[in-house]
Specification:
CATH superfamily of chain A: P-loop containing nucleotide triphosphate hydrolases
Number of helices of chain B: 11
Number of domains of chain B: 1
Radius of gyration of chain B: 21 Å
CATH architecture of chain A: 3-Layer(aba) Sandwich
Strand order of the largest sheet of chain A: 6-7-8-4-9-10
Oligomer: heterodimer
Strand content of chain B: under 5%
Order of helices and strands of chain A: EHEEEHEEHHHEHEHEEH
Structural class of chain B: mainly alpha
Shape of chain A: globular
Strand content of chain A: 25-35%
Number of strands of chain A: 10
Largest sheet of chain A: 6 strands, mixed
């Protein structure tokens, strides 16, 4: 079975149940024209994705760009199967690894070792494989004795290193990555790059969401520019990035006038 | 280079969501959720165990605080209520101990079930995981608590020399029924409470009321023979009694068995219907 992602005409609405819907309605409606709406049952919803379609196959490296709130992370979560679409068709074939937030769902009260073990069990790994992963992660993240202490007391750098090492110790076919992943101090990035590239090369499909244009140009062959939950442009990385960056420049200079 | 090359992550899977979401399609997803969770039983077990371990991390007695606090409560309440109700301690204490320990399980599953999804928000939002895992986690966690409290029950039996005899074995199949009910409750309450945030306090106060309405600290015989038929009207009584009565050396009446199985079937059916409908929406609600 070939690894592939098919998304056809998918829309995703977020119902807003909590909080005072009425006052929320008033404040948000004026601010986000067009993104907020009511569904057929008169519930307040945020239109997170609108009629999104694309198709990825083996070897595709897709970059997602767009301003905050354009729907990039929602799209990644949907591809990971966390949000299930009810409008449109989505098919994701292959084992998926979603690196969406630096904590990777880690439990802060548990020790680093326990978190590694949970991750291994979640991926249905055997005991020896989990032990190997423990050694591998411990060595890369340079946690030393901290591995047996709760993650809560780690420095933020250590949490990132642990999360990164943990995430990159797997070899998924479909890799979904949010930009935090490429954030980190320069020394760490130097060390991390090889490991990350190793994993990315091993993956059949990469979907990367990022604000950093250089990263997208380096890593991706194709770029989708998201705007207000819609696909604004979809094409070869350099072409779309040129227009996207040009658009950003005019938007900024426009504000200055 | 790294030892990780063989970590081929999970077996490849296909996620295929089609626009026409029929009941049959949704049922298949729900079924798949349960099956995937069953395959992750080692993960469920570790999550449940870690919950207990974390709670008592750094304490000297560790999880045996559970045992100790139950023992203290039973001793105190046993003394007080035996005097108040003018009961023979020999007869009353085993009953009270069993009731309190078993009720502790029911109460904890109901209360913690309300948070089964809301509390795991970060985990749910960071990776796709079968929702059944979260419900199983709550059940296993409380089963472990129950295991620690078993020591108190055995202790009371030993001190008073009131062993229940072979009838006690009847509580084992009843326990299986409990686990099924507990699983259903954790999912049903967890999903309902994620959607409607007013439910946890309501559940909590109903549970407190149920504690007094159900024969937990008072013996069911107290209602009198002409009103005994009322007892199985309370689902909690029937469900409690199928496990408790055998452990006291009695055989539950047929009425109790029938109603306990009936209520459980109703709960499971209701949960399944809700599970099939709500499973895909939980991540939007939390």
């Amino acid at each position: 079975m070939p690894t592939e992602i098919v998304v056809e005409g998918v829309s995703l609405d977020f119902p807003l149940y909590h909080g005072n819907a009425r006052s929320l309605k008033r404040t948000v409606f004026s601010g986000l024209s067009g993104r907020m709406s009511s569904d057929s049952k008169h519930r307040l919803v945020v239109r997170a994705l609108r009629d999104v379609s694309f198709r990825l196959g083996r070897g595709d490296r897709l970059g997602l760009v767009g301003t905050n709130g354009a729907g990039k992370t929602t799209l990644l979560r949907m591809l990971a199967g966390i949000y299930e679409p009810v409008v449109g068709h989505m098919r994701v074939a292959g084992n998926v690894s979603a690196l969406l937030d630096p904590r990777l769902g880690m439990n802060m009260d548990m020790t680093g070792r326990e978190n590694i073990k949970l991750r291994g069990l979640f991926n249905a790994m055997s005991q020896p494989a989990i032990r190997r992963m423990e050694d591998d992660v411990a060595e890369f993240a340079e946690l030393g004795h901290f591995l047996d202490l709760p993650v809560r007391i780690y420095s933020s750098g250590m949490v990132i290193r642990l999360g990164f090492a943990l995430a990159t110790s797997l070899r998924p076919q479909v890799l979904l990555m949010d930009e935090w992943f490429l954030a980190g101090d320069a020394v760490f990035m130097e060390k991390a790059r090889g490991r990350l590239e190793d994993m990315v090369r091993g993956a059949d499909i990469l979907v990367l969401s990022s604000h950093a244009a250089s990263v997208v140009r380096d890593w991706c062959t194709r770029v989708i520019w998201m705007d207000q939950g819609r696909i604004r442009e979809d094409g070869p990385a350099d072409e779309v990035m040129d227009r996207y960056q040009g658009h950003k420049m005019t938007a900024i200079s426009g504000q200055d006038d | 280079m790294s030892a990780s090359s063989d970590n081929a992550a999970r077996p490849a899977a296909v996620l295929d969501f089609t626009p026409d979401v029929t009941w049959a399609a949704r049922s298949r997803w729900a079924y798949r959720d349960v099956m995937e969770a069953a395959r992750l039983w080692r993960l469920c077990w570790m999550l449940g165990w870690l919950d207990i371990k974390l709670k008592y991390r750094g304490s000297v007695l560790g999880p045996f605080w559970l045992t100790l606090s139950t023992a203290v409560m039973v001793a105190a309440m046993g003394g007080i209520y035996a005097t108040l109700f003018r009961m023979n301690l020999h007869e009353y204490l085993p009953f009270l101990t069993l009731s309190l320990v078993l009720w502790g399980f029911v109460g904890a599953v109901v209360n913690e079930g309300c948070n089964s999804f809301v509390q795991q928000e970060t985990m749910i939002r960071s990776e796709r995981m079968p929702y059944t895992v979260y419900a199983v986690r709550i059940v296993l966690r409380n089963l472990l608590v129950l295991g620690h409290n078993l020591v108190v029950i055995v202790g009371v039996f030993a001190v008073l020399d009131t062993w229940p005899g072979w009838n006690a074995l009847l509580s084992l199949p009843a326990m299986l029924l409990w686990l099924l009910d507990a699983l259903a409750l954790s999912f049903l309450l967890g999903a309902l409470c994620a959607r409607f945030r007013d439910i946890p306090p309501i559940v909590n106060s109903l549970l407190q009321m149920a504690f007094f309405v159900t024969p937990v600290i008072w013996k069911p015989e107290l209602v009198g023979p002409d009103r005994a038929w009322l007892l199985p009207m309370n689902p909690l009584f029937s469900v409690l009694d199928v496990v408790r009565a055998p452990l006291l050396g009695q055989v539950p009446t047929l009425m109790v068995y029938v109603s306990a199985i009936g209520y459980s079937a109703l709960l499971c059916a209701l949960t399944w219907v809700f599970f099939v409908r709500a499973r895909g929406r939980v991540s939007f609600w939390i």
